[in-house]
Fold this sequence. Notes:
By secondary structure, the protein is α+β, with helices and mostly antiparallel strands. The protein has one domain (4-148). It contains five helices and seven strands, in the order βββββββααααα. A four-stranded antiparallel sheet has the order 1-2-3-4, with helices on one face. Strand 6 (60-65) and strand 7 (69-73) form a beta hairpin.
Amino acid sequence: xxxATDRFFEKEYEGRRFAAVISADxxxxxxxxxxxxxxxxxxxxxxxxxxxxxxxxxEGWWVTKYRNQPRINLVSLSKSAREELAADFxxxxxxxxxxxxxxxxxxxxxxxxxCEWTMKHPRLYKRSQQFQEYxxxxxMVEEQKTKAA
Length: 149
């Protein structure tokens, strides 16, 4: 379970809380109350049918790993809440194909929170730099710091 110092962004959407945290996979989106999550950079929002190879428990919209692995159920959220969540966390809402796009995350509120987190927690930032499995977040943060200087 993520600790308060691992969190760099948190927001509520229609009564559900989501957070962005640093994990062993790097930046990670977490459904705080449902304890489900997935690495940012490998995730998107996609419509999943019930069952299937990776087993969506309900048909509807999910935060997925890649395009086809349902991780966080968004069935209860409205279209506008899903769109807001996508913008805040830098997630693509999929229609046809998956496009790995770190620039989407780089322009999100969660990324701004990550940049602020690195300044507030420099030792944790240094220890966490090894966790870049799905997203080149350290280079993105350093580039942002250079722009701001």
